[in-house]
Design a protein that fits this description.
By secondary structure, this protein is of the alpha+beta class. It is built from five helices and four strands; from the N terminus they run H-H-E-H-E-H-E-E-H. The protein has a four-stranded mixed β-sheet with strand order 2-1-3-4, sandwiched between helices. Helix 2 packs across helix 4 and helix 3 runs parallel beside helix 5. The longest helix is centred in the first third of the chain and has 13 residues. The relative contact order is 0.18.
Length: 119
Amino acid sequence: MPRTILGEAQIHPAVREKIANYRSDIVKEVQAAVAANGIVVVGMRQNPFPRKARKLLDAAGIPYKYLEYGSYLGEWRRRLALKMWTGWPTFPMVFVKGVLVGGADDLARLIEKGEVRKT
């Protein structure tokens, strides 16, 4: 099911570039990590769920790359670009083999089913 996003024709030409380039540095950084690593966990300080995802992977002996961007008190604008890019509203954002699989609870279900395992 495709997600609903505002079509480019519905965005005034004067602001299209601003939208396209909004915080693109962080998006490119995550894209590069996802391309270079089998599993990437994108998180933030103070949030217990990125820590939960890392503990699940550590317990299963599964290697991963962790990227951390700010906390509840800072860098929310940078993280917003990731939410806009993925459509995923919370952290962590877990990518497996280039695919966004969700957050910590989603990762736990996939590990339990054997869909994510040591490579």
